[in-house]
Specification:
Largest sheet: 8 strands, mixed
Strand content: 15-25%
Number of domains: 1
Order of helices and strands: EEEHEHEHEHHHHHEHEHH
Structural class: alpha/beta
CATH superfamily: Alpha/Beta hydrolase fold, catalytic domain
Strand order of the largest sheet: 1-2-4-3-5-6-7-8
Radius of gyration: 18 Å
CATH class: Alpha Beta
Shape: globular
Distance between the termini: 43 Å
CATH topology: Rossmann fold
Number of strands: 8
């Protein structure tokens, strides 16, 4: 993948006086569970409700750049770069299980004094969000699952064993490079016309750091598989599920199954939309979240 240098913290604001309350605060790093976790803080300074954003696989907080300016009108927004992605550390000693990543995000939020919040996760981030709901239901008001990863099993044994080979990170780099950033983006959006230079650069950026390939090998090794049906049925947090009608990565059928297994779930399917719902339909996603969180009561 062709990177083009590391970004500074991403600042995207809408024009117009109505958005001045919802502005960028700053990007920070906190040392949690032996690694530095990067997060960005946005928001309406008077907002009583916090929403935590968790991106998907091979992504970062960059993927919420279109959605954040809208959310920050009404909410205090924390967008986290899940390890090993974005500006968070790409450590060889961190345990990249979903359970541990979720616990790490919860510890981060404790450290920055976020005690009650709603969590929105896209793709893999949705599975991290579900793990958080399972681990700390008392902290989470509501969950928003955007084309959430669900029902995927752990990697096959021979793939896990292969991850111990010294050349495996080079294989990961080669495998991802075959498709490249543009190829990956073409597979996750319905409307290919939205793919521009800014988008390509934003998703390519993190692959400038060669340590990510070793960390991805560890993620393959440590990932324990998505939460089973029994665990999902025990989650009592109200959840909004938003899916793209043309999602090729996590098909709508997965969203329908997830909405049946979660006790308190509402499924919304967006027309002419692929997997990358936070970018493709950010205005619709914002309106669905705003309505679901009943922003007027906060």
């Amino acid at each position: 993948m062709n990177g083009r240098g590391f970004f500074k913290p991403r600042i995207f604001l809408l024009s117009g006086d109505s958005h001045q309350e919802g502005s960028f605060l700053e990007g920070k790093k906190e040392f949690i569970n032996g690694i530095h976790i990067y997060y960005e803080e946005y928001g309406n300074f008077r907002a009583a409700h916090t929403i935590v954003l968790l991106h998907g696989f091979l992504s970062s907080s960059f993927s919420f750049r279109m959605l954040v300016p809208y959310l920050s009108r009404d909410f205090h927004v924390i967008s986290v770069d899940l390890p090993p992605f974005g500006f968070s550390d790409k450590s060889k000693t961190f345990h990249y299980s979903y359970k541990n990543i979720a616990a790490t995000v919860l510890k981060l939020l404790d450290k920055i004094n976020i005690q009650k919040f709603s969590v929105a996760g896209h793709s893999m981030g949705g599975q991290i969000a579900l793990n958080m709901m399972s681990q700390a239901p008392e902290k989470i008001v509501k969950g928003i699952l955007l084309s959430s990863s669900s029902y995927y099993a752990r990697a096959k044994r021979h793939h896990i064993l292969a991850s111990y080979l010294p050349f495996f990170p080079a294989f990961v780099k080669y495998y991802l490079g075959k498709t490249g950033v543009i190829g990956n983006l073409n597979s996750v959006v319905y409307d290919k016309s939205i793919i521009d230079e800014t988008m390509i650069q934003g998703y390519a950026n993190q692959f400038e750091d060669p340590r990510i390939f070793s960390a991805l090998a560890l993620l393959l090794r440590h990932r324990e598989g998505d939460l089973p049906k029994e665990a999902l049925q025990n989650i009592q947090t109200p959840c909004l599920l938003v899916w793209g009608e043309h999602d090729k990565i996590v098909p709508v059928a997965i969203g329908k199954k997830l909405s049946e297994d979660l006790p308190h779930a509402k499924l919304v399917i967006l027309k002419q939309t692929g997997h990358l719902v936070p970018e493709e339909q950010y205005q619709d996603v914002y309106q669905e979240i705003r309505s679901f969180l009943n922003v007027e009561t906060y």
